[in-house]
Specification:
Radius of gyration: 23 Å
Shape: globular
CATH class of the largest domain: Alpha Beta
CATH architecture of the largest domain: 3-Layer(aba) Sandwich
CATH topology of the largest domain: Rossmann fold
Number of helices: 16
Largest sheet: 7 strands, mixed
CATH superfamily of the largest domain: P-loop containing nucleotide triphosphate hydrolases
Distance between the termini: 49 Å
Strand order of the largest sheet: 10-21-20-14-19-18-17
Strand content: 15-25%
Length: about 500
């Protein structure tokens, strides 16, 4: 029995609608305005049937319609994305989005967005877990039983009694999935669920997805990092330019040669093919900062007078790309914010060319690409946003061309896909031309081609003498791009150093 039926669906931009909740930026000069060119087709004559209990992967390059297709299933289109017109028929669990009551569809379809914090309604994790059932009027006893079941099944005890705003990106993603699972929907739609997850969290997510599939639930996953889905999905649907280019069984997907896979723009699909890197002994550091490049001496970020992570000693030479890995919540993003001068209290020293750089001065020597790039896109066009970093039109054109954004120069940043926005924020950082470049999960939402192109550009700015620090869980990108990799760990011994990994 088909639980989802899409018949010749076309989605077309009709003007300048307001941003949907998952796309709404926290900070932007243009508020909630989205500007998708009128008449542009986002989905083009798409027909898709999904059986009950089936797990379907939506794959393909970023910006090709995967998120839009998901919005058609969960009812955001046409009910809430008012500037997107929908032609064709959509039926989900016997309901027609746009004609049925929103709450009726919400009972049947649970969504985890690219940016999970956009779907949170409460300040604490405990309240967020039960919000859906409370909102539906479920009795207290059943709510508590269901919450306890999901916490136990998904192993998320560490997320209880937490301030949601203080969670890492990966922890928020895990909480978002659990909040959906508590409501026990028939259909799960997941949009880039591994974007900010570490290896352990991805393994948890894999078990979560496998668990709900085993219960007969239907799962639709839009994803670029494919290896974790091995053995779970029933088939893969490849989208290109808003159309279904190819549909493959799981066996066909796994049987693709490396050349075929790359030609389709797909990441590694076989977990055994993921590259490995070895753990080396900790590196010894001289007491004095290096004469050239970045030197960190017992550097940490302080919260309530206590270090967030063990004080870090690290030297980065001009032209080096250093990767930082670690579990979700270990402090990687906080470290980059501290280096960029965005954290008020830090301990230890930050040195550039042997000269100590105070916190306020770090903003002038560091460029940063955040996990949530909506925080740093301010103009009403892609080109205008780049001009805020660099007035040189020639350089802007070169960088946008290299990141496959030049044809989108006139688009509003909030009209771009998640992966396209990620590339735009990276373009801004590159164009700023500062000696230190900090990148927090720069390949989140990027397909194979754009991941490779991003790596080439990062190597290019390093070759010009910049010191580059990257935090990432993306093993493919890590191995392709970084010269050295360090593991950031929270340890009780404040004198400990990050352990060094070399590729």
């Amino acid at each position: 029995m088909n639980i989802i039926e899409m018949d010749r669906v076309t989605c077309m931009a009709q003007g300048e609608p307001q941003a949907t909740p998952q796309d709404m930026p926290q900070t932007t000069a243009q508020g909630t305005v989205r500007c998708i060119p009128q008449g542009e087709k986002i989905l083009d004559d798409v027909s898709l049937d999904v059986r009950q209990g089936e797990c379907v992967l939506l794959c393909g390059p970023s910006g090709m319609g995967k998120t839009t297709l998901i919005k058609c299933i969960n009812g955001l289109i046409p009910s809430f994305e008012l500037g997107i017109g929908l032609v064709g028929a959509v039926r989900v669990c016997g309901l027609v989005p746009g004609t049925c009551e929103t709450y009726e569809l919400a009972k049947r379809v649970g969504s985890v967005f690219q940016n999970p914090k956009s779907q949170f309604y409460h300040l604490t994790s405990d309240d967020e877990l039960v919000f859906g059932l409370e909102n539906a009027g479920v009795d207290v006893g059943r709510i508590e039983r269901r919450r306890s079941e999901v916490v136990s099944e998904m192993g998320i005890q560490r997320l209880l009694h937490r301030d949601v705003s203080k969670m890492s990106g990966g922890e928020k993603q895990a909480l978002a999935f659990a909040s959906v699972a508590v409501a026990d929907p028939d259909v799960y739609v997941l949009d880039e669920p591994t974007a900010n997850l570490d290896a352990a969290a991805i393994d948890v997510l894999r078990r979560q997805i496998a668990g709900v599939v085993a219960l007969g639930k239907t799962v639709i996953v839009a994803e670029h990092r494919l290896a974790f889905l091995h053995g779970i999905i029933d088939r893969a649907v490849l989208l290109e330019n808003g159309r279904i280019k190819r549909s493959m069984s799981s066996r066909e997907l796994m049987g693709l040669s490396e050349k075929e896979r790359a030609s389709l723009g797909l990441r590694i699909v076989d977990p055994a093919s993921l590259p490995a890197f070895s753990v080396e002994r900790p590196v010894s550091f001289s007491a004095a900062p290096k004469k050239r490049g970045v030197s960190l001496r017992n550097f940490t970020v302080l919260r309530h007078g206590e270090p967030v992570f063990s004080p870090l000693n690290l030297d980065i030479c001009p032209g080096e790309i250093v990767g930082l890995v670690g579990a979700n919540g270990s402090g990687k993003s906080t470290l980059l914010r501290g280096l960029a001068g965005l954290e008020r209290r830090t301990g230890g020293g930050f040195f550039l060319d042997a000269a100590e750089v105070p916190r306020r001065q770090r903003r002038k020597v560091c460029s940063m690409v955040m996990q949530d790039v909506n925080h740093q896109l301010f103009s009403d066009s892609v080109w205008g946003d780049c001009e805020l970093s660099c007035p040189d039109a020639g350089k802007i054109g070169e960088v946008l061309g290299a990141l496959d954004l030049l044809t989108l120069s006139d688009r509003h940043p909030m009209s771009l896909s998640g992966g396209q926005r990620q590339r735009l924020a990276m373009a801004d950082a590159i164009l700023a031309g500062r000696p230190v470049v900090l990148l927090d999960e720069p390949t989140s939402g990027l397909d194979l081609r754009h991941m490779i192109e991003a790596g080439v550009l990062i190597k290019g700015i390093a070759a010009q003498g910049a010191c580059v620090i990257v935090t990432t869980h993306d093993v493919e990108f890590l191995v392709r791009t970084c010269d050295r990799v360090y593991s950031l760990e929270q340890e009780s011994n404040s004198e400990s150093e990050a352990s060094c990994r070399t590729i």
